Amino acid sequence: MKVSIFDVAKKSGLSVVTVSRVLNGAETVREKNRQKVLEAIRELDYRPNAAARSLARGKTGIIGLIVTTLQDSFFDAIVKEMNEVLAMHGYFLAISVSDGLGSDGSHYLIQEDRVDGLILLSPMEEDSYIVEMKRRGIPYVLIDNQKPENDAFSVTINNLKGGYAAAAHLLELGHTSIAHLCGNETFRSTRERRAGFLQALEERGIAPFEIVNGDFEIAFGYETGKRWLEQGKLPSAVFAGDDNIALGVVNALMEAGVRVPDQVAVVGYDDQYIASQLHPQMTTVRQPADKIGLAAAEMLLKRIEGKNKRSAVQRIDPELIVRESTVGISHRER
Questions:
Q1: What does the UniProt keyword field contain (predicted)?
Q2: Which residues of the chain are modeled with pLDDT < 70?
């Protein structure tokens, strides 16, 4: 039997009017009551009648999402959270995997009356997108955008703080020979993580073992680790720009019989699923995908309803997750 709004009201112990207000993103609902309604919706697996709601509001009931790749567990977690939040408000999520505005998928979504709003996840050509979305009057939100001047409606991560936390952790463990493997320079996150890393080292008067630029790929970490081994000179610790790079470093070291963390400590970034499945489990800097997805969805819903006409910037802090791939100098095997 199909679950109705009346079932949600009964389950939450609140009125149908309150449930309706929550579904429509009204700010007049108390947070405690809003959580009761959302919990009831999840437990009952309630899905609003999107067609009827869209007709009543004069909208399509579709939110567009443009992303450069879905081959990333961090991106996947963000999309999952956004999809759940938007579904609760009667919206369907239409996804386009695109490298730029010229591709068929993104061009299709950025059309009048195709979508009620757009979310761009880690866009590479954000300027051209923004110009087109503004021209067509499409509400939008950026996640992990590359240019600070485009932060007007965005959800970003404090990557400088994340890079600082990773370096500070290694320094506190007694490491003074620390390398940093950066991701692609195009990404703002690359530059900010490196800046945080360098700030932590500079505060202690320590120079990095080496800073190497590459791509957010396993191969980059592996090749750099192999080069160090061939040169016969290893850092005592590595801060990798993401978990993929970190995995590549670990593979190269362990293949050569170098123990992690007993001989080289390694810190990754993102806390992708693989980080907790490795042996040793990876110390990493977690980007809270659930908070990012929720913040972006709620920001866009407010823009669609005309409640957020001025700039709205949300910057979310990452979290250092200490696991098995880091150890202090004094605790290493002799």
A1: DNA-binding, Transcription, Transcription regulation
A2: 1, 25-27, 49-58, 100-108, 111-113, 309, 330-334
Q: How far apart are CA 99 and CA 269, in angstroms?
A: 23
Beta bridge partners of 157: 316
- Overall pTM surpassing 0.85 (yes/no): no
Give the Cβ contact number of residue 118 at 10 Å.
25
Long-range CB contact pairs, 43-46, < 8 A, 24+: 43/11, 44/3, 44/7, 44/8, 44/11, 45/3, 46/3, 46/4, 46/5, 46/7, 46/8, 46/88
Domains and CATH numbers, the chain: 1-46 (1.10.260.40), 49-157+289-317 (3.40.50.2300), 159-287+320-331 (3.40.50.2300)
- The Cβ-side half-sphere exposure at 316, using a 13 Å CA radius, reads 20
Q: How many CA atoms lie within 13 A of 155 on its CB side?
A: 24
Spatial CA neighbour of 64 closest among 45, 86, 48, 89? 86
